[in-house]
Amino acid sequence: MTEIDSLIEPLVAFRRDIHANPELGFHEHRTAARIAEQLRELGLEVHEGIGRTGVVGVLRHGTSMRSIGLRADMDALPIHEQTNLPYASKTPGSFHGCGHDGHVAMLLGAAQHLARTRNFNGTINFFFQPAEEGLGGAREMVKEGLFERFPCDRVFGLHNWPDLPAGTIATRAGPIMGAADKFEIALTGRGSHAAIPQDSPDAILAAAALVQQLNTIIARRIAPTASAVLSVTQIHGGHTHNVIPERVTIAGTVRTFDPAVQDRIEASLRQIADGVARANELTATVDYTRYYPATINDAEAAQEALDAAATVGTAQVAPEPAFTSEDFAFMLQACKGAYIWLGQAKPEGSVPLHNPHYDFNDEVLGHGIGLHVALAERHLARG
């Protein structure tokens, strides 16, 4: 049994305790306290309350000024768990449906191993980040001076990936996760009795036309060589069968990898909304929010990650980026680094992320710990 193997059993128990007691973004008080306690027991320098509920552990050894950052997210999702596991969530409507409990366990395991072996020369910063699920916890940590207080030559983030076989580790240079935008368009008229539609502009009819027009943006305004997604996901309007509503709202999301494509889509969306509103004698207001940028890996850092991955599992270059988003992007805007996928699919298949039946695969804990350790030891090689 290796030293890392000896860590797995207590880490499984720790992970399942976190799973049973999930906390949503910026409310990870119990989780953060448990992490801080574990880091202090290892003798690390511990900083709490960074980015509201974030925790940073600092481990130094030797005389080198080189440094590395390793990040794990720790928030749950607002989903009701349906796994029926013995350690299922005790909190209705809160659930570790994205595996952040596993991410925490893997990074803690790496801290335990590195604190005991100290086979490195420099500084390792362990970043336990809150509020990845749509609230921008990484952005808050960066705003509070994360990399000024804890400088890093490189920063790496690891996420479990059910689409890859367990133990397979993948990343790529350049874009790996999409930018996430959200929009809401309100079409407003006067409203009237449904039996006399000639007396009022029809916001329902205009909304139907607008949905069709929005779905032409990618096909007709974006180059075929570019990658982008626009999805209308909500339509709200009306409250009874015999009233033409005064106001209808349409909402959705846009995913891109290129800021120029992102700009083109937003401009087109605003233009089309205004045109449809004018054609139907309505007014349109557009609320367009770019809440997560694209996650862009540094080429050298991505190669570092692949080299380290080859020592602990099956390493492969990810053939294409994913359109899902990740707020680790904010850390990569402030520090060179790479975002990495760790496969967790079992031979019989795997449940996707954000599914009420999902559970992190404890069988890959050792791979995740090993990858974190390899990243740190290789970057901070002694001598």
Automatic annotation (TrEMBL):
Its cofactor is Mn(2+). GO terms for molecular function: metal ion binding; N-acetyldiaminopimelate deacetylase activity. CDD domains: M20_Acy1-like (cd05666). Mn(2+) binds at C98, H100, E133, H159, H354. Keywords: Hydrolase, Manganese, Metal-binding. Gene3D superfamilies: 3.30.70.360, Zn peptidases. Residues 183-277 form the Peptidase M20 dimerisation domain. PANTHER family: METALLOPEPTIDASE, PUTATIVE (AFU_ORTHOLOGUE AFUA_6G09600)-RELATED, PEPTIDASE M20 FAMILY MEMBER. This is M20 family metallopeptidase. It comes from Sphingomonas tagetis.
